[in-house]
Input
Amino acid sequence: MQCSPDEIRHQILDAEPVLKRLDIEMQELEFDPLVPSSVTAAYAKVDRVIEHLLARFKANPILGPLTTELKSQYFDGIRAKVVLARNGK
Output
């Protein structure tokens, strides 16, 4: 299914406030990278928030894959904090 540039622009504009809210929620994410249960809770929160906020875009061919990509990015950020903490940095 191909989308016109206008359709893509509309989809992006529709998603913009949701993505801003996601960014705010993720900035507020706090966890102790040295406590496994805290790290697990952080992963769960990222998953829950992204699934909730982006649920309406799942079937969208343009924005649907964004859910997986965002989770991956935020999970990578959590893992990086864990590695830094374990290395004493």
Residues 33 and 79 are 8 Å apart (CA to CA). Residues 5-27 form the longest helix (23 residues). The two ends are 48 Å apart (CA to CA). The mean pLDDT is 90.
